[in-house]
């Protein structure tokens, strides 16, 4: 049997130590606090440690406290943040040492495969019926959440769109370009990047460090292959030696040539800030970037624009922050209570209004969301949906790590498309 969670917080460890010694100070074991692992607490692990993500989490906690006033929320994540990559490594260490939080956030889809294989998380399919989610969530989403044997191991708190081009129309207008920022093809986009470069815009397209560079590759593959062949790269129906892949990688190399020199030391929000400041005309990033523009009091449609990434109109590149329930925990009822709030209409509205994403539920009133979010709700309901590679929906973590290594090598100066294509082809092996 898996050893139960060893700690919720430092105070929990201290309490456990006191019980083990049968006394704490002058008290006895009988007078010491009861175990913190009861129906009175739920330990939740996320990488949302700062900014709008933390604000969204706080809003979700507020709903949870109203819906389940007898259960205390314990933020069991890596305090001090460190980003999702560092947090995932820390979480993995805890899971391997049989010290799981009650629930933890992960990206829905293939990212969960290793957790499922290692029996770190539980099947929560029954909760879909209990919470009415089979009716509230779209069928296509449930299909993407389900494993081949029909089980579901997470409950999404939101839906994000990855394939978005963020545009500063003033920069385009200044240089005589169409301000809409809409491009049917990458070739048309590259032509305007070249015009901006010649006009003196040092970095027409901004990008951040490693994962934003993988993100840019993802949208480039989607543009040149189309949704069916793009998805085929991850399910095996598209050959990595396909000439369309070669074209996409060549396009990717050209796109990177128009990016900022400090890209390897700049976080994704720093790249967004370049567009906000007018230092770049474009940035390709998911809709979590919305808050960076809103926080600067920029007006959607006037001061900035958000359109599908070049060549990807009619496609919704999907990812979701999704909560799992760990195995080996003492109190599943408290964990289920948190999952109920995550999936509830009130919880999804409160969380997504802040985070910039859209609810997974289809029974919410779109009018209460921002103008961009209303366009995303419409797009998710009618466009072709594909799964994000960079954000865990399309491939397992091990394959993403290999893809990331290939991207880093290519962007570090090799620029060898043949070697790049071979490395990507080998990533699934």
From TrEMBL:
Signal peptide feature range: 1-22
Family named by the database record: Belongs to the bacterial solute-binding protein 1 family.
Primary localization class, coarse: other
Listed name of the protein: Probable sugar-binding periplasmic protein
Free-text function comment from the UniProt entry: Part of a binding-protein-dependent transport system for a sugar.
Keywords from the named record: Signal, Transport
Origin superkingdom: Bacteria
InterPro entries: Bact_solute-bd_prot1, SBP
UniProt-annotated location(s): Cell envelope
Pfam families attached to this UniProt entry: SBP_bac_1
């Amino acid at each position: 049997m898996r050893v139960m969670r060893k700690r919720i917080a430092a105070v929990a460890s201290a309490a456990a130590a006191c019980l083990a010694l049968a006394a704490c100070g002058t008290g006895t074991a009988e007078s010491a606090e009861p175990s913190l692992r009861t129906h009175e607490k739920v330990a939740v692990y996320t990488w949302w440690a700062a900014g709008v993500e933390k604000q969204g989490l706080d809003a979700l906690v507020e709903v949870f406290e109203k819906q389940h006033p007898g259960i205390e929320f314990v933020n069991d994540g890596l305090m001090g943040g460190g980003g999702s990559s560092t947090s995932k490594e820390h979480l993995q260490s805890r899971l391997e040492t049989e010290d799981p939080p009650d629930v933890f956030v992960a990206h829905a889809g293939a990212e969960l495969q290793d957790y499922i294989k290692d029996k770190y998380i539980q099947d929560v399919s029954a909760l879909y019926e209990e919470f009415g989610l089979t009716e509230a969530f779209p069928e296509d989403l449930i299909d993407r959440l389900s494993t081949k044997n029909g089980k579901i191991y997470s409950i999404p708190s939101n839906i994000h769109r990855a394939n978005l081009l963020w545009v500063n129309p003033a920069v385009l207008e200044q240089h005589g370009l169409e301000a809409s920022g809409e491009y049917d093809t990458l070739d048309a986009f590259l032509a305007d990047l070249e015009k901006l470069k010649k006009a003196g815009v040092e970095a027409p397209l901004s990008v951040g460090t490693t994962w934003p560079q993988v993100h840019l590759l993802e949208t480039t593959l989607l543009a040149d292959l189309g949704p069916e062949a793009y998805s085929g790269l991850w399910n095996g129906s598209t050959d990595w030696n396909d000439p369309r892949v070669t074209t996409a990688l060549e396009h990717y190399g050209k796109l990177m040539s128009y990016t900022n020199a400090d890209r390897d030391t700049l976080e994704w929000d720093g790249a967004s800030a370049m567009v906000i400041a007018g230092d770049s005309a474009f940035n390709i990033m998911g809709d979590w970037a919305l808050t960076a523009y809103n926080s600067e009091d920029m007006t959607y449609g006037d001061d900035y624009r958000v359109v599908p990434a070049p060549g990807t109109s009619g496609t919704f590149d999907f990812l979701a922050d999704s909560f799992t329930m760990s195995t080996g925990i003492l109190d599943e009822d408290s964990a289920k209570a948190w999952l109920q709030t995550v999936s509830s209409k009130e919880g999804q509205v409160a969380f997504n209004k802040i985070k910039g994403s859209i609810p997974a539920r289809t029974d919410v009133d779109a009018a209460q969301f921002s103008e961009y979010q209303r366009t995303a709700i419409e797009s998710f309901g009618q466009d072709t949906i594909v799964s994000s590679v960079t954000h865990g929906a399309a491939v397992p973590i091990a394959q993403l790590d290999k893809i990331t290594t290939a991207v880093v090598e290519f962007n570090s100066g090799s620029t060898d498309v043949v070697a790049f294509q071979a490395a990507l082809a080998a990533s699934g092996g």
